[in-house]
Amino acid sequence: MSVWLAPAKVNLTLMVGSRSASGLHPVRSLIQTIDWCDRLTVVEGEEDRLEIEGADLPDRGDNLVWKAVSALEKEAGVKRPPLRITLKKRLPVGAGLGGGSADAAAALIALGDLLGVSSEKLRIAAASIGSDVPAALLGGTVWAEGFGERVARLPGLSGFAVAVVVPPFPLLTSDVYRMWDDLSEPRGREFPSRYLPPALRRSTPIRNDLTPAALRLRPDLGDLVEAVAGQWERPVAMSGSGSSLFSFFVDAEEAAGAAREAEGLASAAVGAELFSHGPVPIEAVT
Prior knowledge:
The chain is α+β, with helices and mostly antiparallel strands. The protein has 2 domains: 2-155, 2-Layer Sandwich (Ribosomal Protein S5, domain 2), CATH 3.30.230; 161-272, GHMP kinase, C-terminal domain (Alpha-Beta Plaits, 2-Layer Sandwich). It has 8 helices and 11 strands. Strands 1, 2, 3, 4, 5, 6 and 11 form a 7-stranded mixed beta sheet that branches. It has a 4-stranded antiparallel beta sheet with strand order 8-9-7-10, with helices on one face. Helix 1 packs across helix 3 (119-127), helix 2 (99-115) packs antiparallel against helix 3 (119-127) and helix 5 packs across helix 6. The chain is globular, with a radius of gyration of 18 Å.
């Protein structure tokens, strides 16, 4: 039996380009994994089975975990045993935190470990599953370009933590991008530099171009932005296509305190340290 942690991510920067002929939007994004994780357990079984705890998600072939298994089978060309997989969901769905992609990446690594598949084949399989999966596979501090398929791990960021607030409603990525197109491709507002941790003050501009579209779709997200920013006395940013919000704090203790202050404003609030890996065996961090 193997148990794997599948960490959430926040998009510190998400710069979006015009929709291509394929219907997809190229992006440039600075991504950081954090220590808020789903757990994926994989064991050999008598038949394929996926059990999901903590979320109402499909457990058949349209789940990203099974898509990852199928993609690796195809890429590696190896026969696998039946698998019994248990997914304990702690990350919210439709929140821009990459939980589904992290689960898929964890499934790739767990199965790759079981079958002895090379890291190169894992990377190829990841790119075929979804745009966020290659970055989730790498983890840590990652720069992503194109349609998510071009990724590079950067020297790890340090010196700060984040507090994350999750609204009581999800946002569909496709809806947010469609609204971004309808709004004539607005550019997100840059995060004020005086509120950035030193490690980010000389990096790429810290902004999210999808924020105006998310706010247009859900005006109540704007209300939450104002409420959380007022509570924390600092600006907040949106991760991915939303709906999660986050901001920067000196350390994990301060971030946890900020999360406690915001618990009454949202469905979930956590303080999180930066996580320097993608999916890892649970014993690697305990």
